[in-house]
Write a sequence for this structure.
């Protein structure tokens, strides 16, 4: 099949492109390269540089590619920035998605798989979190994703657009061959920051809060490996093309979590030296615990994560960072 991967030059997108190509599929990437990297794409993937706000360019790209499915990753993803500049988030993430879905229904009404997030749940009362838990985003970022879920429902009802929503928990790791990995313009993620600290690019690690109601007082998150997440997209696309029910949302996570201290213990073990840690105050907006109930995707799509051990996950990220200390820059 031919898949258009929107935002395919980014972290999760580029890993999904890799999996699609390895499975023998044809890929067209549409990306504005605002945070993605041309270097993250294999030459077999056709790249169209275009912005989601450019409706004519979207229609033309869809018309030329004639894809069998669309996977939509393109979005701004920083919670803190979304609170400082919500307009940019709603414009990019919401208006951009409306443009994409409109262009899809006007050119070729093919299945769409949409990247959503655990941030739609906000500070969930109970974990593990099932898909039908209350949706109370605590950031403009989370709201923007939840709005797009609603927009997809409406496109499904009005136009019969087939779609699946994947809600990611904490995505981490890198392709085991360490040719692609995480490289965001602003680094905020725990594992990436720890490994850059190990490389001497930062002085120490701050633990954001030690007084949470969790076993060791630090926040617990469900860390899903990016290659497993990429596989989840292939499963979702294949199911939709095979006629599976449209309009489903699936949590993508391991189903169990690790605390900040456990993650830092794992990075210490992988890099072979303890990082300097400093305990600090809570980071505003951080829920104590976010763990997926991922039983639905396992049962219905056959999702079977391969990276279930925290050290093995961190090892893949470390192999990427130590071989690319400045990311894709200079490649
Ligand atoms: N965290 C931390 N120190 C850091 C970066 C993150 O203690 O330098 C904590 C953060 O407050 C959260 C957890 O690690 O509790 C995971 O944060 P991350 O930004 O990786 O992902 P999020 O859960 O916010 O999507």
């Amino acid at each position: 099949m031919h898949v258009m991967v929107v935002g395919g030059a980014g972290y999760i997108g580029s890993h999904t492109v890799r999996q699609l190509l390895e499975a023998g599929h044809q890929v067209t990437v549409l990306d504005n390269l605002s945070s993605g990297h041309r270097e993250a794409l294999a030459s077999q993937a056709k790249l169209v540089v275009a912005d989601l706000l450019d409706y004519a360019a979207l229609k033309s790209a869809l018309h030329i590619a004639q894809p069998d499915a669309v996977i939509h990753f393109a979005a701004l993803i920083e919670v803190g920035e979304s609170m400082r500049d919500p307009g940019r988030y709603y414009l990019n993430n919401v208006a951009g998605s409306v443009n994409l879905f409109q262009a899809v229904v006007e050119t070729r009404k093919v299945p769409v798989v949409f990247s959503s997030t655990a941030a739609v749940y906000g500070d969930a009362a109970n974990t593990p979190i099932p898909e039908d838990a209350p949706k109370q985003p605590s950031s403009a970022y989370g709201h923007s994703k939840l709005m797009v879920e609603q927009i997809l429902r409406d496109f499904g009802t009005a136009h019969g657009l087939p779609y699946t929503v994947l809600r990611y928990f904490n995505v981490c790791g890198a392709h085991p061959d360490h040719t692609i990995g995480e490289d965001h313009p602003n680094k905020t993620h725990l594992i990436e920051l720890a490994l850059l600290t190990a490389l001497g690019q930062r002085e120490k690690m701050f633990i954001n809060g030690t007084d949470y109601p969790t076993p060791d007082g630090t926040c617990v998150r469900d860390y899903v490996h990016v290659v497993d997440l990429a596989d989840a997209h292939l499963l979702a696309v294949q199911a939709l093309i095979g006629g599976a029910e449209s309009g489903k949302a699936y949590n993508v996570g391991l189903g169990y979590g690790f605390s900040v201290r456990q993650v830092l213990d794992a990075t210490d073990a992988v890099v072979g030296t303890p990082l300097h840690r400093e305990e600090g105050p809570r980071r505003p907006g951080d829920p104590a615990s976010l763990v997926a109930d991922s039983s639905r995707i396992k049962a219905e799509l056959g999702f079977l994560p391969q990276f279930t051990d925290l050290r093995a996950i961190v090892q893949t990220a470390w192999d990427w960072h130590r071989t690319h200390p400045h990311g894709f820059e200079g490649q």
